[in-house]
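HUMAN:
Sorry, I am quite new to this. Are you able to go through these amino acid letters and fold codes? The numbers rather puzzle me.
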Amino acid sequence: MKKKSFAVLTIIILIILFLALGLQSAQNKKIKTANINIGYQSITAQTWGALVIKRLSLIEKYYDQGELNVGWSNFASGPPITSNMIGGKLDIGFMGDMPLLINGDFGQNNKYYDSQLIMFDGKGLDGINQDIIVKNNDNINKPDDLSGKKVSVPNSSSAHRHLMQELSLAKIDSSLVNISFQDIPTAVTLLEKGDIDAIVVWEPYSTYLTIEKGYKTILKTSKNRYLAGVVANDQFIKNNHDIYKAFELALIEAHQLLNSKSPEIIKIVSEESGFSEKVVAKTIQNITWDETITTDDLLALEEDVIFLKNINKISNSFNLNDFVETKK
């Protein structure tokens, strides 16, 4: 009798263990762990949508398929983001119009990498958010005064195009200007030391240098539509539709929050970017936060493509339409 009781007890224990293991297995299957890695630029105001998404964990908020690990990597400019995307270390990158087009050109000429412009982040309309900066006591007030001067600008950037267009509109031969290529933080240091006469920057550096450093902007006449956008590895989009959808909703909410210009959002951006709340509050006033890709945006990008082809930074075969046709 005892043997029968022991056998029954053993069977019951085995059944309980089997059910427990099955339940655990079901739970493990239900909880999926996914990953997304994003490159962004905290020192570029028109990509500040990334800062809001990161700080408020908005992608995780909209992802309902299990656990999601979001990796964030901060860079001083767009080219390193592109390098990391090509190397498979990043899935999505926030960058300005020129770097994102160069990214797209790599995608169209590399069988192991393809990229798509999926959305825009911040937009600077009618030439705003890019400036030529000089010290307040310098006798440089307009593009004509740059002849014979040393000017620093990030190579192949929207600021580079802005400088060349200003010189062209002023009928100044660019060969008369001593142009060197540095990233903005380096250029700011050179300007402070007096090693160069002017730098060409995008926001928030224009606001930062004028209201906190006492520098000045010179007259400008160009009306470039300065755009910043989001580029994604096309293969990542195809294989991770749920994550892509969560990212899309996250960016839309980030734009709604940025457009509110609330003190809470200004504080978040200030803490994430390292710029003062005063600088952030003034900077975001001149940025249109809009993820949609409009006809006017595409026309502006077409002009950027022409510039980049003329300076041999993208191939003549680059097709903008293929780049913006996302495969969701």
